[in-house]
Amino acid sequence: MRTRKEEIVIACGVFRPCMRHMKITERFPRLRLRFLPSNLHINPFILQRRVLKEIRAAKRRNERITCLYGECFPGIDDFCAEHGARRVPGCNCYQMLLGRDLFHRLIDETAGTYFLEQELITDFERCCAQPLELHDEEMRQEFFKHYRKLVYVRQPGDRGLEFKAQELARFLDLCLDIRDSDYSHLERRLLALIE
Predict the structure, then answer these.
(1) Which residue, 28, 147, 170, 174, is the most exposed by fewest CB within 10 angstroms?
(2) Would you list the DSSP string of 128-145?
(3) 3-state SS assignment for residue 9
């Protein structure tokens, strides 16, 4: 009988709480998780190179490869197909965390919705404020002139981030909406690839 291959999920660090909550490695002992820093999104070219580095390392270990990323750099689906990896479907992490229907309903309700989750809230300064020069009032106003609402996608295990989310909403001059993540959509899509 042929033994099953080891598997790896190469994922954005945004999904760390989600994977912990799902207890995915307890359910699938042959599965390994490799999280990359979310701030790699600042430069999609560097993100692509880092994902490729992880894919090549996984291939050397003869692992089946799944990528848990949205459409975070141009042509990611073709890139994954070319390098023998499968990608969990979804346009971005917020759609994956909220589920497609709720994500699109929120966007339809308010044109100009800015999403944040745990990692970006706790590391907003390094991931958003500094690279986008948001402490410059003119830059902040220019960048956010088309936004109306900030949606904090709360995940199980988030502790005390509501106050920080309120501070950020005031700083960005946006209304705050807090929505709980729904991992069921992401779980179904992920399990379809790794089972």
Answers:
(1) 170
(2) IIHHHTTTSHHHHHHHHT
(3) strand
